[in-house]
């Protein structure tokens, strides 16, 4: 709907997530701890993959290192601004800051979708085509695939940011959300947003549906291959290599589908669902991959053991 006020908006006010005032201090400390642990956990995994010679040349762990960087980025883009909403006073975000937040969130979020798909393909090759795996999934090929995911993600983020902010914004400037995201920002536009909503729905829908379909197809083949393994121990090891990936894909894709793949979505649950890909999943990823991956745990022990030895000497 067109608005008569022609004064351009220079800043936005993020309302944050609704909460009882009595819980302000608790929520401030809760998300501060979540953010701190997210950065520490992902940084430890990234450094472990880079430093440990048994990990940094293997495709599976190159993907894991890239995922840790993305998780640190998404958390840093969203959570500090969320924490600020639990402090007294109004803290607006500039128009340029809102553009940057939306761009980087969709850039890193779509890159994460592509990365999850590549990780599923890596597991498919490792389990279904083990003899061809060393030839098809070399370190060089893995790095090229990760680079391609970053480039595709940056293009996707740029498309979404350009489409959203090509529209005029002339007031009001209160974003009913805890960060600058497409559905919440479009509601403030002083122009018809039908085309934007349709393009956004199709664009994000294509990315999410394609990535999820490829992941699902990969795991259909993986499960078929695992069920053909004769020994229970062999099946257990094969399932364990995929368990962490299946877990993080589930807790990432389900909330994203709920937020973006519903036309004219404006539910109070959107904010709660959006907390998963922005705050909860980046926090859980290091725990899931560390607790379920024996090689990562052994690499961490080697790092701690080496530092202990150096300190004693």
UniProtKB/TrEMBL annotation:
Query: Its gene?
Result: LOC100029949
Q: Which Gene3D superfamilies match?
A: Rhodopsin 7-helix transmembrane proteins (1.20.1070.10)
- Keywords tagged on the record: Cell membrane, Membrane, Olfaction, Sensory transduction, Transducer, Transmembrane, Transmembrane helix
Q: Which InterPro entries match?
A: GPCR_Rhodpsn (IPR000276), GPCR_Rhodpsn_7TM (IPR017452), Olfact_rcpt (IPR000725)
The GO biological-process annotations, alphabetized, read as: detection of chemical stimulus involved in sensory perception of smell
- Keyword Membrane recorded: yes
The annotated topology with respect to the bilayer is:
Multi-pass membrane protein
Transmembrane regions:
26-49, 61-83, 103-121, 142-163, 204-227, 239-261, 273-291
Where is it predominantly found?
membrane
For this record, an example GO cellular component is: plasma membrane
Q: Where in the cell is it found?
A: Cell membrane
What PANTHER family would the database entry show? OLFACTORY RECEPTOR (PTHR26453)
Domain G-protein coupled receptors family 1 profile: where?
Answer: 41-289
- Origin superkingdom: Eukaryota
What protein does this entry describe?
Answer: Olfactory receptor 10G3-like
Task: Recall the GO molecular function terms of this protein's record.
Answer: G protein-coupled receptor activity; olfactory receptor activity
Instruction: List, alphabetically, the Pfam families matched.
Output: 7tm_4
